[in-house]
Structures are given as C-alpha cells and as structure tokens.
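Collaborator request log, item 7. Partner lab (contact: R.S.) asked for a structural prediction of Sugar kinase to inform their binding assays.
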Amino acid sequence: MVVGDVVTDVIARHRGPLASGTDTAAAIRTMPGGAGANVACWAARWGAEEVRLLGRVGADAAAWHERELTASGVEPLLVVDPQAPTGTVICLVDTGAAAERTFLTDSGAATRLDPGDWSDALLDGVGWLHLSGYLLFSEASRALVARALASARARGVPVSMDPASAGFLVELGVDRFLALVEGLDVLLPSRDEACLLTGLPDATDAAAKLSRHVPLVIAKQGADGALVARSGTVRAHVPAVPTAPRDTTGAGDAFSGAFLATLLTGARPEDAVREGCRAGALAVARVGGRPPAPE
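Returned to partner:
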C-alpha cells in the first residue's frame, strides 16, 4: 500500500543553460508522475503481487491517471478533489552528461489528502505501508500521515518513507520532520536529504546518524549507489549499475519501488538495495518517472 502524490509531469528536456528572456529549444512531453504513484508503479513492475495507491487528484485528470495506474498493475484508490486541480510538476531536464533536473511544483490536490480520506480498512491484507514524504508538506496530509502511521503500528504493518524533497524539508524543519516520522521502520533519503536531516556533510556519517532514529536507513547516492545503515552503523555500500542517463526524474522512486517489492519477498536489505539500483539505472535511461509498460 502506497499513500502519496499523483501528479502530471510536464518534462522539458533542453541542452545547456536556459536562455533568460527568450526561447530555449526543448523536447516537451506530458506524462503521469508523482513520487508516490511512481513508487507504486515500480513496485508492481518489480513483481509485487498486489499494489494499491491512495492519492488525491482533481477532476481534470482523474480518469487519465486511473487508466495509467491500472495499466502499470496498480490498483488506484483516488480521491477526486472537488476544488483543486491535479498537481502539476514542470521538470526541466538538462540533457548534458548528468541529465540533472529542476522541478517547478504546483501540488494542487496532491497534498490535500486528509484524515477523512483514510480508513483502517485500507490496511486489510496489507504487508507493507509506504508513505511519500510530500505528504508532510501540508497540514491536512500531515494529519493523514499521523493517522496512517497509528493504524499501521496497531496492526504491526511495517512503514517506510522517502523524504521526497530537500527544498521542502528546509521549509518544514529538520526537527519537525524527525518528530513526524517517529515510528518508521525504513527511511529512504537521498544523499542531500540525509545530509540535511543530520547537518553532516559526509553521506556515510549522515546515514549512520539517521539510523539511530529509524531502524533501517537506505541512503540513495545516485551514481554512487546506496548505503545500508542500521543501529548507528553503515553496514554496506552497494554500487550503482552503470548506465547512460537521459532523465533522472523518478530515479529515486524507481529505486524505492524495486527495493520494497524485493524486501517483501523476504530478501536481505542489501539484496533488495541491489534491485533498487537496477531499477534506478533503468529509470534514468528513460524519459519520465514511470517504468516501461508491461510486456
């Protein structure tokens, strides 16, 4: 079960600096996205037998997102917001060697999930709950996170979260974030997020420190793979799978989805991280944050 954001991605791939005040040539595509939705789709792509997604969208694109999620093997549980449109993210992707991206985000309905959208029955038959960190960036969805966490703890369902955005974490505040995620079983931060949450410049030190707050920390390092930390110690560094990046949008989501799907099979965290790295390599070789369509 994934609870998180469902958004429409407008991906503009350009080369070199943006030309301020005039035109910059770009290849532009509109695609389904959202960190929570992407994780769900990659988990299904990586063999999770049943994946559900709770999210909130506007009436403008609800049917399209339902079709796209279903086609990816995800059961969509989408709440249609009566007022706000579907969230939209403009992804500016520099097509240079690193394929780095910059996001312009209008969360729209995505962070308007609230406790009224939650029911304990949503966890019936669920073996794992994953929460998108974007839910912590509005008051309504923070309240939903608290309710979902309490429900999962009461049922003994393990819970993971991806912090989602270093920029939004700065606004939320580190201490507040750590208090809100009390009781998590797994945290999946990026290098920047791990360093921000600990105030430490070294990713290894940051992952180790975070694992004193959360039992298992998987710190994603992009082209440098990922770190596995438990009980204040980094236990493994798993290398990335070499690839030629086209678009890094959704690479961390792909990692998380494949990692969780593999972990649910009973695999060791280190082996699940290797699958996460494989998925991340596949994701960056594609445009957009979703996996290729099932064959």
